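Pilot study result, target chain (558 residues):
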Amino acid sequence: MADDVPTVNIDDTSSQATSTYVVNSNRESLNSLLHKTKDNNENCIQVSAGKCSMDTQDTKESKKRSFCCNSMSQTVWGVLLIVMSISGFIFTPMDLMLWEKLNMRPGLPPFEWWSDPPDQVRMRIYIFNVTNHDRFLSGLDEKINVHEIGPITYLEKLLHYNISFNENGTMTYTARRFLIYLREENTIDLNATITVPNLALLGIASRLYNANYFVRTGFTILVNSQPTGFFVNKTIYEYLWENRESILDTTKTVAPYMVPTTNMGMLYSIYRDFADEVTVKIGPKWGHHNFFKIDKYGRKLQLKGYDLESCPDTLTGSTEGVMYHQKLSKDDVLMYLRKSICRAMPLHFDKEVVIDNVPVYRYNLSEAAFDRITNGTDCYDAYPSLPNGISDTSRCYDGLPMVASYPHFYTGSPPRDTYVTGLTPDKEKHNSYVLVEPFTGTPFRALARMQCNMQVQDLSRFSRREFHRFSNLILPLAWIEYSQEGLPWYIQYFVYFTVVVLPPLFTVIFISLLLLGFYLTLKRVSSIKNLFTVHRKNEKILNDTSNFESERFLKISS
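Predicted structure:
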């Protein structure tokens, strides 16, 4: 009976209680470990993401944390810096500056410097004085001998006004040039007397050389009645500005069409009508290569006296030399327009030089520029045909028989002693060139030189023997040098900073930005990689701990 009554074993109860306590204790230990592992995992993530302390009361630390610890912002900045640096190498700041210059916007430096050009151009004129006029007329000397006098120096002032922007991507303006005498730069007395050919007499005779007998006889009688001869004495000032002869007044009364002006002063003839309307190409539509090239001159494609039927040459694509197109190459041919020689002249690349610490290209005037054109229409020939080295300019001077050439015929075309003696050709003194910064098209130096001559026709049909002495001569009268002598300091330093300083400076800046962008981006990638590594380690620890506790629990329970 007693065996059937259930009894409680104190030891068993104690054992069960102990077992229950162990189980509960293990569970609490496991939960605590899990929570601890989770907390450690969160702390590791926080440390790997920035290792920042959480102090919300400190404003400075908060700002620092927002800048340093926000890895997403750093990643965005890194990508932006990489994009900016790569874009800077593709579209350089200099290219953007040139692209903006194409528009010639008022208020910006390129437009302001062009609209009010600096006073940097000197005009120097050298006059040929005849030293043997009596011996030549008497037949003792076969040729006229000349002696150069000069230079007489002027400042050529250029004004741009009446500026308007057209809808077709062009700009129209009026360009006016005039001279200012520079007393302090001159040593030649303008009141000094020189002996020169009688331009009025020889010019009218050359226009009448093919006239009928009665016209020629009447002109001879008119010449005989005048107090002047085939050579005249003039002051230098008169020769340049007030070269008047009574025969001009008389002829103008009888035949006005033959005498467009009664003043044959050399500089007066050039500058009396030196205000012209010019239209040039600007804007992105035309690109860098056509920037500031002439589209029309005086609302026409050619100078006064020319037409497309007789002359295919136009002024389109040429420039007045104040500004050349951008991004020049060594293969480019620069067409330089000078109204006084009645045409645009080609300049070809010669060499690279450095001036004012800026690399520039030197373009020389072609030594064949005044030669005859054998294929096609020669717009600058006369009748009878001119030799190589001589270019007709009579159309620009109302039919006066004026021709242009190289000073002193320095190229040997024509040979220097062909018409007169006393010339001393020198390439260094008489050639023409321009030094241009190729990136911006800014001319740093320029020398344009040309010689004014009179073409005398065959006068053998006139009765006076003196006329015969001048037949078929080309008489050198003077030669002119236009010299751009540097740039104002502000333009010079702007170009220097743009083409010399900025390229390496921006290279350093963009490389630095690129490296910083890669650093920020790689830092974020490395942070993410470390985060995944820590996460995998925590998972492994968690799994190992869980397995260990489970095994221990099972052993104790059993």
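One observation from the pilot: The radius of gyration is 45 Å. A full batch analysis is planned for the follow-on phase.
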